[in-house]
Amino acid sequence: MKLLLTGAEGQLGFHLVPYLARLGELVTTSRRSGDRPADLTDPAALSRLLDAVRPDVIVNPAAWTAVDAAEEQPEAADRLNRWLPETLADWCRHNGALLVHYSTDYVFHGAPGRPWTERDVTDPVSVYGYTKRAGERAVLGSGARAVVLRTAWLYSACPGNFLSAILARAGRGEGLRVVSDQIGSPTWAGSLAEMTADLLRNDLARPGGSILHAADRGCMSWHDFAGMAVTMAAERGLIDEAVPVEPIDSSQWPQKAARPCWSVLDVAAMEAACGRQLPTTKQALSACLDQWK
């Protein structure tokens, strides 16, 4: 089996590489690195890449993830979040390949009083959320053999995410002010990579496509997660000492793009698909921090 991994230089791509390499011949790509560097927003470059590699499986974590910047650059966000997965799905349909694509909790809005299921109605409230939902629709409507994995609050030891940012500040001894009225399911990129490998081993994707919620088991605010991370990092000697973490309302941290107030995902279907219980937020964060150095 030959696998093509897009976005290989991102935090999810980084964690996917060792898992996918065990499943077959892995070819990686990103804009500036990988086995076959390519600009995936360029139709000609993308076509050359696909025709040269001719993968049996495409794993696509490549995306526009700058939520606030998407409000000012909607066309660029749409290119990566809707056009790219649509084009990959079309290629997969014509070539009998499988597509694994990643989406987000930002397709939801509101607070149903329970975790969101795969059957719940979507209602994105940001350009980022709209473009990711458009990507879901494109993949599911393509007729390709595909699975869309919705995840939430992805973090890792890589630069450029919530966890690495708060621990960098804590490491400098700076106190933190963190939103306490947004509730979700923090998910380690390593957990999501392992779930992906489980699905590929079990060959669960079907023609017509399906959606699964892929997140660590948890329900907490950004403030709760930050407090847990700072405490656990101090215990491991990753920072000198735990710093104060002050809870604030979203109104005290204004951002261009609206965020869902409730991002907790129901992962029962994913646990059934993987044949195991997924890790809790605390278990996954512990594993992430144990690998930090």
UniProtKB/TrEMBL annotation:
Belongs to the dTDP-4-dehydrorhamnose reductase family. One of its GO terms (cellular component) is cytosol. This is dTDP-4-dehydrorhamnose reductase. Its cofactor is Mg(2+). Pathway: Carbohydrate biosynthesis; dTDP-L-rhamnose biosynthesis. It comes from Wenzhouxiangella limi. Residues 1-291 form the RmlD-like substrate binding domain. Gene3D superfamilies: NAD(P)-binding Rossmann-like Domain, UDP-galactose 4-epimerase, domain 1. NCBIfam families: rmlD. GO terms for molecular function: dTDP-4-dehydrorhamnose reductase activity. Keywords: NADP, Oxidoreductase. Binds 1 Mg(2+) ion per monomer. The gene is rfbD. Its EC number is 1.1.1.133. Catalyzes the reduction of dTDP-6-deoxy-L-lyxo-4-hexulose to yield dTDP-L-rhamnose. It comes from the Bacteria. The lineage of its organism: Bacteria, Pseudomonadati, Pseudomonadota, Gammaproteobacteria, Chromatiales. One of its GO terms (biological process) is dTDP-rhamnose biosynthetic process. It catalyses: dTDP-beta-L-rhamnose + NADP(+) = dTDP-4-dehydro-beta-L-rhamnose + NADPH + H(+). CDD domains: dTDP_HR_like_SDR_e.
